TrEMBL record:
One of its GO terms (biological process) is glycoside metabolic process. This is PIG-L family deacetylase. It comes from Glutamicibacter mishrai. The lineage of its organism: Bacteria, Bacillati, Actinomycetota, Actinomycetes, Micrococcales. The keyword RNA-binding does not apply. SUPFAM superfamilies: LmbE-like.
Length: 253
């Protein structure tokens, strides 16, 4: 198990958090993100699809996309995030192809985060809803972009030669929505749980039963706190933490 408390100090300069759809980050990591911003750490969001195929009302997909953009910006503000990037991919059609990966590499080189967050690229058979194809594609695209493309000056050379975005080595990758056997880091979000719930409530087009959503999130965070062996009634979010460039990392190994 990795101690996550060390990441909430000077060690972490910036965090760049990716989600496949508006609301994915709020379900998976908004409590942790609120803890980061409360510690004075800058967090930026990148939402990879417009969420145009989500919701329960009969409305034009373009209207849905516009609403979900607005919802995500409001949700981000609830947890102290000021910058939200939208890649504009079509909901349900996200792929880990080179067009998407180039966009990811560009953004990571621009932001130069200490921690990149993304959805887990492995299917979760305990709760298959966590493994929407877009979720898996988000994790795969970000993971493939981080190594080796972000740190390889010969990958997408136009980013270097035309945009002057130099190669950058990402220190840490935090994956959320992971299969339980992959989770190796927990963050106590008890003091930030209300902010997480406020962020989730901002996605009004996605919750036909708000009370049921709230019960589910509380149940999941309570279970995470128990698995982390925190004191009773503490709430947590769970991650698969990957050291991409550690002190002992050498090229290619």
């Amino acid at each position: 198990m990795i101690d996550t408390t060390e990441f909430f100090g000077e060690k972490t300069k910036r965090v760049l958090a990716f989600g496949a759809h508006p609301d994915d980050l709020d379900f998976g990591a908004a409590g942790t993100i609120a803890a980061f911003t409360a510690a004075g750490i800058e967090v930026q969001y990148c939402i990879m699809t417009d969420g145009d195929a989500g919701g329960f009302d009969d409305r034009d997909p373009r209207e849905t996309a516009a609403l979900r953009h607005a919802e995500q910006k409001q949700a981000a503000e609830k947890v102290g995030v000021k910058t939200v990037h939208f890649l504009g991919e079509r909901d349900g059609f996200l792929e880990a192809n080179h067009e998407v990966m180039r966009k990811v590499v560009r953004l990571i080189r621009q932001v130069q985060p200490t921690i990149v967050m993304a959805m887990h690229p492995e299917r979760n058979w305990d709760r298959i809803q966590r493994s929407h194809p877009d979720h898996l594609a988000c994790g795969e695209a970000v993971t493939r972009a981080i190594y080796p493309a972000v740190e390889n000056p010969f990958a997408y050379p136009e980013l270097l030669h035309e945009e002057e975005l130099e190669a950058y080595k990402v220190p840490w990758l935090w994956l959320y929505g992971a299969p339980k056997e992959r989770e190796n880091g927990f963050v106590d979000i008890t003091d930030f749980f209300d902010k997480k719930m406020d962020a989730l409530r901002a996605h009004f087009t996605q919750h036909p039963d708000v009370a049921a959503m709230e019960r589910f999130v509380l149940q999941q965070c309570t279970a995470n706190g128990q698995r982390a062996q925190y004191d009773e009634q503490r709430l947590a979010e769970a991650f698969h933490l990957v050291a991409v460039n550690a002190d002992d990392t050498i090229a290619g190994f």
